[in-house]
Structures are given as C-alpha cells and as structure tokens.
Amino acid sequence: MTRAFLCLALTTVGALAVSPVFAQEPKIDGADTAWMIGATGLVLMMTIPGLALFYAGMVRKKNVLATMAQSLAATFLVSVVWALIGYSLAFTGEGAFIGTLDRIFLAGVTMDAISPLAKTIPESLFMIYQMTFAIITVALVAGSVADRLRFSAFLLFCVLWLLVVYVPIAHWVWGGGFLGTYGLIDFAGGTVVHLNAGIAGLVAAYVVGARRGYGSENLAPYDLALAVIGTGLLWVGWFGFNGGSALGANSRAAMAIVATHLAASMGAFTWMALEWWTRGKPSVLGMISGAIAGLGTITPASGFVLPMQAVLIGLVAGAFCFWACTWLKLKIGYDDSLDVFGVHGVGGFTGTLLAGVFAVGALSATPELPGGVHGLLEGNPQQVVAQLYGIVVTLVWSGALTFVILKVIGALVPLRVRQEDEVMGLDVTLHGEALQ
Amino acid sequence: MKIVIAVIKPFKLDEVRDALTRIGIHGMTVTEVKGYGRQKGHTEIYRGAEYQVNFLPKLRLEIAIASEQLDQVIEVIAATARTGQIGDGKIFVMPVERAMRIRTGETDVDAL
Fold first, then answer.
1. How far is CA A333 from CA A27, A95, A226, B14, in A?
2. For A107, what's the count of Cα atoms within 13 Å in the CB-facing half-sphere?
3. Are B61 and B16 within 8 A, CB to CB?
4. How many whole angstroms separate alpha carbon B25 and alpha carbon A145?
5. Interface contact flag, B45 A221, Cβ < 8 Å
6. Can you tell me the distance from the alpha carbon of A212 to that of A420, in angstroms, rounded to the nearest whole number?
7. How does residue A24 score in pLDDT terms, banded at 50, 70 and 90?
8. CB contact, 8 Å: B48 with chain A?
C-alpha cells in the first residue's frame, strides 16, 4: 500500500518535472493561496490602521478622528461596492476599455472558481486581494483635502471615484485592457494606485481650495508619533502589496519584497540627508516621508528590477519627492495638505518611468514569454514609450474625471465644511467627538 | 502670608521641589503653561513648511508660605532653577489674605 502510494507520488512528481505546461493549467495551489491570504491581510492593514495613523498623525488635533474616519469609510464603502460591481467591471472579460458584468454581485465566484488572471489561487481570494488595492487608492486621495472636506461629500466621492476612475484604470492596466495589452508594465500600481491617487489628490486640492490659514497660521502636525506607527504598518504591509502582486509564493514575490524594502530604506535616507543639508535638521517627518516615497516609487518596478536597481530607485524617489514637497509645491501654490501628489503622484510617475528603464527580463520570464520584459538598459527603448503612454493616460483620465466627479458632488452637497466648523475642527462638528 | 508664583523651565521641577522640601516647604501646585518673555521661540519645519513657535512650554509653580519664609524661598528657587541661559523664567510674589485647610478647618498659617 505504502509502496504503491510512493510509486504514484514519484510518478506524479516526475510528470510535473518534465511537463512545465502543467503548471499553467488553472489549479489551486496551497502555497500560493496561503501567501495570498496573508498578503491580502497585509494590504488591508496598510489602510486600517496604517494609512489612518499616518494621515491622522499629520493633521491638527481637532481633525484627527475625522481623518481616520476617511480611511475607515473608504475601507467599508469601497469593499461593498467592489463586491457589488467594481471587481466585475475591472477584472473580467477582454474588453479594451471596461470589463463585463459576469461577476456582478460576485455571481460565479464559487468554491472552485479561478480567474484567468491568477491561475493558482481561488478567484474569491484574487477578488478580495484586488479589493484591498482599491480601498487604499481611494483612501490615499483623501489626504490632499484633509482638514476641510465634508464627510458626506467624501462618501459620495468614494463610490463615484472608485467606479469612474479606479475601476477603468485597473482594467486597462491589469484586467486585460488596452494599456496592459500595449505593453505597459506596472507590477503593483505605479499608475493604477499611486499616480492615480496623486493626480486626483492634486485636482481635489484645487477644487476644494486651501485650508483656512494656509501660509499664515501654524498648521503643524498634532502627533507625528502616530504617523511613525502608521509608516511602520504601511512599510510592512507593502511586502504584501508588492510581494503579493506576484500572485503566488515564489521567487519573484521574494525579489519584489527585497526591492521594496531597499527602496524604502534608501528613500528614507535620501530625504533625511537632503533635509539635514538644506534645512539644518534631520526630521522624523522627513524620514517617514522618504520611506513612503521610496515605497510608492518602487511599486511599479518591484518584480521587474534587481536589488541594486531598487536602491537607485529609492535614491531618486527620496530626492525627487523631497523636491516636489518642499519646492515645487510652494512654487505652484496648491494646498495638498498631506502631500498626496508630492509623494504618491511624483513617486508613481518616477517609478513607472524607471520600471521601463531598468526592467530585467529574467525576473518576468514566463513559459508564454520566456525572455521576460526588457527595459531600456537591456536595449528596449520601446518599453519607456509604453510607460510614458500609461502615465499620460492615467494623468488625463484621473485628472479630468476627478474634476468632473467633484463638480457633480459639489452640486449635490457642499464639498467643504462651513468656515466656523473648520475653525472648530472636523472631529466635533462632523462627528460629534473629540480628543481630550 | 505670601503666594510665590514661579515660572520655570520644565526640566528644573524636581530640583526646585527637592530644594524647597529641604527648607521645610511641603506643598505646591504645578501647572503646565506656555508663554514667552525675552527668550525667542523656535522654528519648526514640516516638509518645508516653516512655523514660528512663539509660546514655549514652561511650568508655573504656586507656593503659599508664611511671610518670614519669603526671602529664603525666593533664594532657593532662583538658585536651583537658574541655568544662566535666557528663558530661565521669573518669580512673582503676591500677598495672601486668608487660607484654610478644607479637611480640618485650620486657618491661615496653620493651614499652609
């Protein structure tokens, strides 16, 4: 009995070893599923409590709870809408512009359903993993209008922006749409998440207007210790964000995590060094900003680049985002309260472009594409063109539609709180609570 | 009776308290306050946004004493709270008309 079983086992192993084709048959794999369940938890942790703490630590004491409320609302509202229709429109079918209604209300996401986009894990897992990306992207945008956006307006924004901006772009890049088909590489969301949230944040800051007292009053953060804790949770969560984007428990996931961690480290070091040099002191806010800049920037490139290239990307991220937040922002004069554009927009742009420069074929090699995706340095300038195409499309779509959505919401409810409420603080005026 | 109000640097509190205990002063009220005098504030920078902070954190001590103790108390506070740097604080003295210990009903100097 034992011998027969052993014999069968050996035959199976032998068959798998000589037939790599088998690996491509849709079949749920235990290891991949286990890792992706863990990665899903890590990415959800990035928003609650990671981003909630990161953002809340940077606002004034009277707006801490209101800022956390935005991350919470993005989590529960986006989750439900994603399950109702968002997932189906983003990740089914082969349409160039939008998905299908095949998975509306999660119809067909059964025990043995497997998405053609993730062939070794249950589709339910792929669906909820992608849900956590949609959540954090919407939650990120809120940072640019912290301290003044009305909560009811934000709830409407969550639903409309998810469906009109996030879902189409996710489909174009990852769901079989025209950007992915064109050859854009975006491992974990340089365009879909960071550039998208960044430009939307910039537009929102313009439409909603500056905080009262911006440029004249002291708007210093209430508790940067909260922001440091938030950064730690985001940083660790990012291992699931980028590592999980390999959609399996494999070497590419590990390489993506190494690249992620090194870029975060180098981004933090670079921002700190530049600030120390130009402003006299190495601030804690500078270190955590540099870390997030490095993380956002490596996102599209992780899974395509080697560790030392990630160090270089982290360096560029720290320097470029520092420049954007401390010089560009003051020149242009917009009040993006928590620097969604300066960190995520600029980082997403930089990383998406650099992914096209540095992509190493060996990292993305598959049986269907044995050579993998080559970047400029491997003699493929066309990849940079594809990256720029993705960047321009994301900027135009997200920028324009965010503007339209905010105007529509503004016609339904006031976007801003009343001036006296802004002075009193959003915690007590919007939510009837306050930190003591 | 007098009440001595001393505004001092926060990190000097324990030293001042110990010195006052040694000369027989066994009570005080401490409040965290913010203010400014000759000491200028400082600049805080958050991602390039510079804020001038004019009000600095200090501690305000209120010590009720018998009039005879006044000179010694002022001397002790001045000696222990001094760093020689700008911003060491100030001492004010005011007369006290009456005092009562609520628990026992003792009044004036007996209540201190």
1. 53, 40, 27, 47
2. 8
3. yes
4. 54
5. no
6. 10
7. low
8. yes
- Mean pLDDT value of segment A148-167: 98
| CA separation for the pair A15, A246 (Å, rounded) | 25
Residues B83-105: tens digit of each pLDDT = 999 999 999 999 999 999 999 99
**CA distances in angstroms from A297 to A11, A66, A345, B42, B87, listed in the order given:** 46, 28, 9, 34, 45
Question: What percentage of residues in chain A have a pLDDT greater than 90?
Answer: 91
Q: Which two tokens stand for residue B36?
A: 């400014």
Lookup result for tokens 């976007």:
A415
Sequence-distant (6+) residues with CB within 8 A of A110 are: none
The interface predicted TM-score (ipTM) is: 0.79
* Whole-angstrom distance, CA of residue A312 vs CA of residue A299: 14
Q: Do A325 and B47 make contact, defined as CB atoms within 8 angstroms? A: yes
Q: What is the pLDDT of residues A313-325, one digit of tens each?
A: 999 999 999 999 9
Residue B45 has, within 13 A of its CA and on its CB side, a CA count of: 14
Residue B43 β-bridge partners: B52
Q: Is B106 on the interface with A (CB under 8 A)?
A: no
Please state the pTM of the whole predicted model. 0.88
Cβ(A163)–Cβ(A272) below 8 Å? no
Domains and CATH numbers, chain B: 2-111 (3.30.70.120)
Strand ranges (E), A241-383: none
A396 vs A98, A159, A275, A308, A401, CA distance in Å? 17, 20, 32, 33, 8
Closest CA to A301 of A269, A329, A264: A264
Q: Does A279 touch chain B (CB under 8 A)?
A: yes
Confidence grade of residue B43 (pLDDT, cut at 50, 70, 90): confident
Place of tokens 């930190």: A435
> For residue A416, what is the DSSP state?
B
- CATH superfamily assigned to domain A30-431: Ammonium transporter AmtB like domains (1.10.3430.10)
Chain Cα centroid distance, residue A173: 13
C-alpha closest to that of A358 among A374, A382, A347: A374
Which of B46, B48, B52 has its CB closest to that of A221? B46
3-state secondary structure of B103: coil
Per-residue pLDDT reduced to its tens digit, A54-84: 999 999 999 999 999 999 999 999 999 999 9
Read off the tokens for B15.
Answer: 């030293």
The pLDDT tens digits for A327-375 are 999 998 899 999 999 999 999 999 999 999 999 999 999 888 899 999 9
What residues of chain A lie within 8 A of the CB of B45, using their CB?
A: 279, 281, 283
